[in-house]
């Protein structure tokens, strides 16, 4: 399933210039394993893990690490396009 989850993360984000990280596309959020919803996060797709970095309200940086083999679901959410 790693290849599938990689594609989901890649489609929901774009590369950060000069790094191996990716930031979420504007207006899109991601939820891993029905947990926290990340709205303005930077994702690093490593060989063994996924790291999600987000900034807290007080300016602190939080890193959450996911083992590829422990990811059961990835949910993406975006606003509905106007018709």
From TrEMBL:
Protein origin, superkingdom: Bacteria
Protein name (database record): Uncharacterized protein
Organism: Thiovibrio frasassiensis
């Amino acid at each position: 399933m790693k290849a599938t989850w990689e594609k989901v993360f890649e489609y929901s984000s774009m590369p950060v210039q000069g790094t191996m990280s990716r930031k979420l596309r504007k207006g899109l959020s991601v939820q891993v394993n029905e947990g926290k919803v990340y709205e303005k996060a930077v994702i690093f797709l490593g060989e063994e893990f996924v790291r999600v970095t987000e900034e807290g309200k007080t300016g602190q940086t939080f890193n959450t690490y996911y083992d590829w083999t422990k990811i059961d679901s990835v949910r993406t959410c975006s606003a509905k396009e106007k018709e």
